[in-house]
Amino acid sequence: MKKHIFLTLVAVLTLSCTNTQKQEPVQSQIGFEVAEDGTKIPLYAGALSTVELWEKYIKAHNDRDLDAIREMNAENFKAYGPNGEIIDGTDAHIEFLATWFEAANPVWKSNYFIANEFTNQKDKLRKWVTSGHDVSMSVEGETIEVGQVHDALIVDGKIQMFYVYEIAKASSEEE
Fold it and tell me: Which domains are assigned to the chain?
């Protein structure tokens, strides 16, 4: 009987000394952000939830769902277009899109989405999604194809800001 008690006590002590803390996965650096002073800040793979939000945002554009776009924009929304456009605020964005949708009927075909994040020098976590798309639209009655890259800043589950970079596709590149 004493042996059973002793073995039980040893088993309990052994189990209680086992480290059961959940270890955080080690993040691999995927690049770096360059701060204004030239400091290189490590850049890591980001959360896929940001990709899901941006993918939903692109779908809302294809669906012409201005209410969904408005809902996904953050309070101090800003967008920078490929031709120097600066769209300041959600109301201005919705107005721009309504006019553009009517005039050009753009359609996005997504090619890739990449989530990344870093903590800046002000100790703020910055979550970005970079995505690439083929876009077809009507310009002066003719369908044109462009390639676009978007960089979108996601803050608190909303689209805070994005940049659009665009290049016309050569006719040999069009499908």
Answer: 47-115+128-168 (3.10.450.50)
